[in-house]
Sequence to fold (164 residues):
Amino acid sequence: MMRPSIRAGGFVAIVAFLMASVVNGIAEADAGQGALSVVVPAQPNSPVELTTCYAWIVQNSNETRVVVSVVFRVRPASKTATSVRFTFAAGNAFDAPISFTGTSEGSFSPGVRIDRAHAPIGTVIPMWNYPIAGSDVTKVACAVSDVAFADGSIWHAAQSTAMK
Fold:
């Protein structure tokens, strides 16, 4: 009896399609949503490189939320990370920030790109969303704030996220 099989590449493609459907479903679910301008400040001393940050507004009759998702990698010269904390600052036209954080946990090997479509099984890479008052948010700054490593050491960012 022959069994159908899915190769690893096919599985990844299916997961990527499902994740894109979920993201599109969230974005299309409510009226008033929109992509935000995103700022990713350079952090050359961070052991984790934040390569991409996505942010958008989702609004319905009850509330307004900022939704954020990231793509990152542990720099090749670093060591395996087990937890990465990101800081997000949503700001309006006057740069009045609303700060919040999000954490990804798992086993992140140096040099490997980590995103929702290519995350190792068992890795928690959420798409964070936070309620905000009003809908005047125009941009979001995204930065790596803390990294915990498999050997027990911890790295902390030297300064807070800049909006500009």
Q: What stands out?
A: Residues 8-156 form one domain. The longest strand covers residues 48-59. Helices lie at 8-29. The chain has one domain: 8-156.
